[in-house]
Amino acid sequence: MDLSSAVTTTAATLRRRPGDLLPFYFLGTAVPVIARVGLFVALAGVYLHVELTGRLADAREGLADLDLTPPDTQDPEAMQAWAESVEPALSPLVSPTAVLLLAAGTLVTLLLAVLAYAAISAGQLSAVAARLRGRRGLTAGIAGVRGRWISFLGIYVAELLLWAGAALIGAAAVAVGFLVNPFLGAAVAIAVLLVGFVVLLAVRVVFAFAPAAIVVDDASAFEAITGSGGFVRTNPADAAGYLVITIGVLIGTASAASALAFLGAGAIVGLASAVVVAPALDVLKTTLYGDYRDAVVPVPPPESGPIDQIRRGVRRGWRELLAFVRRSPGAHVVSIAVGVGFGALGWLAVDPLAGAVTTSIESRLVGHVPPAAAVNFFGNNWAVAIATATGGVALVVPALSSIAFNGFALGATAALESNPVALVAFVLPHGVFELPALFISGALGIRLGVVSWRTFRGRLSREAFANALENAFWVLVGLGIVLGVAGFIEGFVSPYYWRPFV
């Protein structure tokens, strides 16, 4: 199979039954949500520590007598003087126990991120390989998470060690060169840069196909690296073509992100990269490697065109969203209770700072560009909804923590608002769409968590779990419609309509 045919197969695979593949890429956006649970637990521990030991009361007492408003100046001496005046009041919050808890929380967060990334990557590539063989992707992905995560972790660690080893060897060679002679050191540095670039590029190409080798050959990490190296040697043109396409896509994505970030709409690029670009590149490299192993059964593209397919997908997403809301009232009650409860907690937590520290919706709207803002609001909110819902797969806790975090942040922001009437007026038009959508995403995360737990205990089959993941995908498509409407209103209506009256 040539590169052009592989690209055609990639497009057909992505278009034919996307709900049997993309849920695992939606799940990939939840890695930060899953990982930060460790840090949240550490922060809760710190709070209990400073509250029970009286340190928080001491800090509140010290802050009550201070003006916490930073000086309205760029003078570094004034800023330093203000910081020095505040530091004694905050010093009771710093203790060896608090520092130890935060360090442990950070370590656990990093560990969770690495493990979640390896496990979800195993599921993604396993789902891709199954789709390319004409089998159901989600059930294969679920099996891949449990059976292949160690192999994926192994290739990631191996590549990291190779990069680190190459960097250390290069740095040592340059250091020795400079010790002998400055001119020799400069020459060695140039040679290290050139040779290192070639070596690391070769390493990246080989390791790019190692995940595909794991799922196609059902191989261990070492066997996958060996098989990937054999593919690159045997098919250098295909490997080079994939590398060129990947670099081109990354450059295009980075350029789009920079341009949209300048306009304030960069969130949509990150979401598109996670749920469109990443699966496309994974399918392409697995197609190339699978064809090398005679393990690909190319699927024909759908009979309907892309526009008709999108139209039917939107309708299905809306139906699944309404059906989910009707059949899961209990999960929605829990989601709303957590969001509202932590919103109240955020309000109370910042109450000692009210008046001294303020936020302003009017200042945040300075430089507002409606089209870019609408796209950014939609991209950011849909990404949060997707990560919250799919994060629930990790036994509910990440979904609840995400709802709690967002509720706490909204409550704290509202409590510190300098013009509460303006804030309510701004939030109301789009909030009637946005807030329910976020609560629904939390309820969806709770449902997925329950299903994953029952599957883990053997009470549900992988097929049932796969059905739940596919249904969640379509519910999230429906939420995308709601959040698209909310983003449009927030970009074009909410910032303006109230100004003549408030």
Structure characteristics:
502 residues; mainly alpha; 3 domains; 81% helix; globular; DUF7847; Stage II sporulation protein M
Explain this structure to me?
- This protein has about 500 residues and is mainly α.
- The chain has three domains: about 5-40 and about 100-290, no CATH class; about 55-95; about 305-490, no CATH class.
- Helix content is about 80%, strand content about 0%.
- The chain has helices spanning about 5-15, 20-30, 30-35, 35-50, 55-65, 75-90, 95-130, 135-180, 180-215, 220-235, 235-265, 265-290, 305-325, 330-350, 360-365, 370-390, 395-415, 420-455, 460-490.
- The longest helix has about 45 residues, at about 135-180.
- The model has no long low-confidence stretch (mean pLDDT about 90).
- Keywords: Membrane, Transmembrane, Transmembrane helix.
- This is Stage II sporulation protein M.
